[in-house]
Amino acid sequence: MRIFDSHCHLDDRSYDRDRKEVLDRAARAGVVKVMIVGTDKDSSRKAVRLTESHAGCHASVGIHPHDAKDCTENVLESLRNLTTSAGVYAWGETGLDFNRMYSPQIDQEKWFIRQLEIGQQLGLPFIFHERDSNGRFFEILSTRSRPGLRGVIHCFSGSRQELERYLEFDLYIGITGILTLKERGAALRELAISIPSARILVETDAPYLTPAPEKNRTRRNEPAFVRSVLLNLAEIRGEDPEDLAEIVWANTCRLYGIDA
Fold it and tell me: How far apart are CA 234 and CA 155, in angstroms?
């Protein structure tokens, strides 16, 4: 079984003391590739550096909606320059988050649109963050995306109607450890059955969203734990774990343009 953690934040300082050990544990769990996702200029730079020193690591660059208030054209130009690195395969994490509103809506929308423009110019797939945007995310994609847009909805936890809209845009659906949580994951488990197999990715969002059973013994998530997400997903869907792992592996490589 080979697994691709399609979204993690290994640049996080919580890994500074044992990053190599974390990656070793991932390899032993069958997690042989990870996508380290940038959320601002500094984290994007660090993600790219990690791809240069750790095999199996790939990176994305982008500005998270929480950080949109600090974005500028100069920041985006620095991210564009980072995409020349051989380790960069995607743009993001970008999108809209009207739940916590760490950045004003006007800033989130402005810089989300600019990142859509730049990423599409570069031909990169997108890692999308969407939460409580009340349809605005779909409106922007409808008016600003070009034919052939590729992307994944990171950490999907929305409604059936939202799922159907994402699939209409031919987006991939990222499933996290929320799936494994008894109460919080109940709605997601119901919807996970109906996601087309060719559109599913698995992810940790590490160091956040630790799945069960690992959640019972540690707060910090790590890429090795994506195996629990995959096994849980296979059980819910009534599929063979190894077969599902190969499907998800192919999906992730296809999205990011990585040789499978």
Answer: 17
Mean pLDDT of the chain: 97
Angle at CA of residue 188, ends 183 and 189, nearest 5°: 80
Residue of 197, 189, 198 lying closest to 239 (CA atoms): 197
For range 12-23, the mean pLDDT: 98
Q: How far is CA 204 from CA 2, 113, 190, 249, in A?
A: 15, 27, 19, 15
Task: Determine the Cα–Cα distance for residues 22 and 19; give it in Å rounded to an integer.
Answer: 5
Q: Which domains does the chain have, with CATH numbers?
A: 3-208+231-246 (3.20.20.140)
Q: Can you tell me the distance from the alpha carbon of 135 to that of 137, in angstroms, rounded to the nearest whole number?
A: 5
Q: Residue 128's CB: how many other CB atoms inside 10 A?
A: 27
The pTM for the full model equals 0.97
Which residue type is seen at 203? Answer: E
Give 97's strand partners: 131
C-alpha span between 32 and 20 (Å, rounded): 13
* Length of the chain (residues): 260
Six-digit token pair at 51? Answer: 């791809």
Handedness of CA 206, 207, 209, 212 (dihedral sign): positive
